[in-house]
Write the structure tokens for this entry.
Amino acid sequence: MRQANGPAKDDASDVESAGVNPIGGPRHWRLAPARLLGFDRPRVMAILNLTPDSFYPGSRVEGVDAAVRAAERAMLEGADVLDLGAESTRPGAVRVDADEQIRRLIPVVESINLKLRGLGPVGAAGEATPPLLTVDTTLSRVAREAMGAGADAVNDVSGGLDDDQMLPLIAAQRRGVILMHRARLPEHDVLSTEYEREPEYGAARDGGVNGAVVGTVVKFLGERAGAALVAGVLAESIVLDPGLGFGKSVRQNLALIRHSPRIAGLGFAMLSALSRKSFVGAAAGLGKQVAASERLSATLGLSVAHLLAGARLFRVHDVRAHVEALGACWELMEGGGGWGGGLRRGVRLLGKSGEDGGEGMGLAAETEPPMGGVGLP
């Protein structure tokens, strides 16, 4: 059952412990007690799907050896985190039970930790460590087994709602979690380009359809972050994901990117996970039938836009291309001069029609305050 809990008043100290960077949001994401990912630059999370049915064939790996090779290649290309998934969440996907997810995941997690030691961040005592690992699951039993095998954190596309033991588990093990918004379960969803009518999110303050999705997502993510804090998860361990492509039309996904400063305004790190999705191709005018393999250029363009809008962690299929594109944009943002200094303090991206997020983008120097009523400090 969906909860709408906000944190208790004394949770304000938890938010402060996240190490809020006054010029660009949280300074880091704590995945595990001794495992941090700093946000001194954009960070890239490589997608490794241990599934036969993920929407982009290039992300699929079969077998432990192939997965380890793919993980090593991603790290050498500049990945900061590896995200391992044993259940596809594409529209129309069939659910995979805990036993099968565990069968697919655990040998790969163990092998990466054993064979790729030295490709992770340097430990506190200067020791070599394995890559940072997240597991893409909504089931606490899968998460528990994966963390026991060496995974650091959990990427939960249900926002912790599929399994009421997930957030307590994350808190008890002092791990990191990504909390995502989705409007419907994958088995009942369709591609963003296939909606005949815009998904219903109510009306925005100005009556616009697409602006309403922004307020809904901001409110939901605020509530889920609050629920995580109440469960005992550290603020510095929480990352928020607007759920691009999950129950949203093309225009609604673009509205969420445009208004992402409102999500960043909740005070937590934000994940961008738009890589090669159908709405990306549509935004570039490629048409509905263009394969995911043809969407790289459009993906890079929107990823750079999302960086400018406040995203700092990027879940991607193409590591090297993103490291280079995001790195170049970051150099512009951080490289001195009046323009870069203004951008790094955060920008507000608004369409011509304000809340509705129509065509065109404008830049303003300050981030719009988050939606009221989300119950966060």
Notes: Residues 1-23, 336-377 have pLDDT under 50 and may be disordered. The longest strand covers residues 43-49.
